[in-house]
Amino acid sequence: MKSFLKYLLATIVGIIIVHVILFFVFIGLVGAIASFSSPSIEIKDNTILKLSLKTAIPDRASENPLQNFNLTTMSSEKQIGLNKILEYIDNASKDSRIRGIYLDLTEINSNFGALATIDEIRNALLRFKQSGKFIYSYTNLGYSQKSYYLATVADSVFVNPETPLLLTGMSANISFYKDLLKKIGVQPEVIRVGKFKAAVEPYIETHMSEANREQVQTYLGSLWGNIVKGISASRNIPVEKINQITDDFKIYPVEEFVKEGFFDGALYEYAMLDKLREACGLTENEKLSLTSFEDYTKVTFPTVNFAAEKIAVIYAQGNIEFQQGPESIGPELATTIRKAREDKNIKAIVLRVNSPGGSALTSDIIWKEVQLAAQTKPFIASMGNVAASGGYYISCAADTIVADPTTLTGSIGIFGLLFSGEELIKDKLGISSDVVKTNEHSDFGGGYPLPIPISDRPLTEYERNVMQTYINRGYDTFLDRVSQGRHMSKEAVNEIAQGRVWTGEDALELGLVDVLGGLEDAIAIAANKAGLDYYQLIELPVERSPFKDILLNFSQSIRTSILKSELGDFYDTYREQKEWLKIKGMVARIPYDLTFN
């Protein structure tokens, strides 16, 4: 009886604790939802717009308050999509109440290094300056190389006296898991085509192949060259001088950087605010009006547009998988493109691609709808930070491809990756298995006795040959798709394919893209090709109601939030490895994720 009461009491206490936790989660959700539905704010005359890019920048941010819900703070960190950043910088240039922009920059995050995203924001700020308004930049915590590159668009760049600029150039650091897998008794089964298709190297090598090293060295040089040229043009510092300081690798005093022209001054924040006050024609006793960019996006602008003609911007961001999600591309995107093709009011389509690739099958399904749409109306592909492998596959049928100079693209290749763990399963874990089959190859690939996709036996030589033939056929199909779309011979495509990654700048010279530019350039090209001076811009796919997402994805969102809180910076590594383990069939994906300082 005593034990029964003890367990009963423990159960009751457990239920109470769970309900208390759920109550606080519910309160946090209510707050998150409320923050997404804040009323429009009023902007005063002589206001400075403060742009602080502290959250990751997707091409298009989700309106789902659970997307970035943080269990630790019980709040949702609202992201602002690149589309809205560009739109509201343009609005600010025409808004008579906005006197100028104040850039408060430390680090900028987006997928695959964020360089194309930064370029698009930089170009939007250059257009803003044409309105005659000022841009000042300042940081208390120090500029990263990327944020400094963006800051140089400003009329004046200032920094805290104790935060020198560290220029190091760019490097790529790749982790290899071959020895780890060997120690735990797991054997990767790799079938690939293309000497540069290095996506599988981390699992079968202990260092980069010479072909992979060559391609990485080439695109890093192109990316860094683009940054240095931009800084040189904006600050009037010779390219050679920038690279000399970078090679010297010295932490110079801030005064030295001011002397060399990298900064216009070193000062503390109170003095920076005085400079902003002076730029607005205010005395030191008058209050400075600063509005955050987050608040400015809540400002309502007249949007009455009765134009029947429309241009559809269709967003394709994330890995290409078998199901569409907030951070992934699925076959559902093909349906979205088909509906846009069949809509007579949509006169042109812009496909905004920010994807490292993924499933070759899903890529082909989407490619077909792109091809059909491009035969019907102007179809422009706009490439973001990355549009490689499967990302290039779904773009190549467009009649015009627009890429940023720093876009990572190409990677035209196919591979298959499986894991067999015979030693792990039988020798280390002591799990044995037996098989009964109706046909000779009914047990193709073996069995999977663990809750992870690791087979209990390696591929046979016959099975490997079957898979290699399948992969070769997939690569040939990929070459054929690119050949048709780019009006090149398959032999010419193969010469620049082989899984090799190119920057947008190099891809232009090779004929893989047509124009260097951003999303707004792609929209302008679409309007011109459709003969439109006046049109509506619509964004697709239409997002599900945030409340519907809450009901459908509550547990997944909470689980993701917990993992992000616990793993911190290691969450991306965990997510990446989990994605590799989900791989099925042929894969068309860039070798790895990239981050740059």
Automatic annotation (TrEMBL):
<keyword id="KW-0472">Membrane</keyword>
<feature type="active site" description="Nucleophile">
    <location>
        <position position="389"/>
    </location>
</feature>
<dbReference type="InterPro" id="IPR004635">
    <property type="entry name" value="Pept_S49_SppA"/>
</dbReference>
<keyword id="KW-1133">Transmembrane helix</keyword>
<feature type="transmembrane region" description="Helical">
    <location>
        <begin position="7"/>
        <end position="34"/>
    </location>
</feature>
<comment type="similarity">
    <text>Belongs to the peptidase S49 family.</text>
</comment>
<feature type="domain" description="Peptidase S49">
    <location>
        <begin position="374"/>
        <end position="532"/>
    </location>
</feature>
<dbReference type="InterPro" id="IPR004634">
    <property type="entry name" value="Pept_S49_pIV"/>
</dbReference>
<dbReference type="GO" id="GO:0006465">
    <property type="term" value="P:signal peptide processing"/>
</dbReference>
<keyword id="KW-0645">Protease</keyword>
<dbReference type="InterPro" id="IPR047217">
    <property type="entry name" value="S49_SppA_67K_type_N"/>
</dbReference>
<dbReference type="InterPro" id="IPR029045">
    <property type="entry name" value="ClpP/crotonase-like_dom_sf"/>
</dbReference>
<protein>
    <submittedName>
        <fullName>Signal peptide peptidase SppA</fullName>
    </submittedName>
</protein>
<dbReference type="GO" id="GO:0016020">
    <property type="term" value="C:membrane"/>
</dbReference>
<dbReference type="InterPro" id="IPR002142">
    <property type="entry name" value="Peptidase_S49"/>
</dbReference>
<keyword id="KW-0378">Hydrolase</keyword>
<keyword id="KW-0812">Transmembrane</keyword>
<feature type="active site" description="Proton donor/acceptor">
    <location>
        <position position="197"/>
    </location>
</feature>
<dbReference type="Pfam" id="PF01343">
    <property type="entry name" value="Peptidase_S49"/>
</dbReference>
<dbReference type="InterPro" id="IPR047272">
    <property type="entry name" value="S49_SppA_C"/>
</dbReference>
<keyword id="KW-0720">Serine protease</keyword>
<feature type="domain" description="Peptidase S49">
    <location>
        <begin position="128"/>
        <end position="277"/>
    </location>
</feature>
<dbReference type="GO" id="GO:0008236">
    <property type="term" value="F:serine-type peptidase activity"/>
</dbReference>
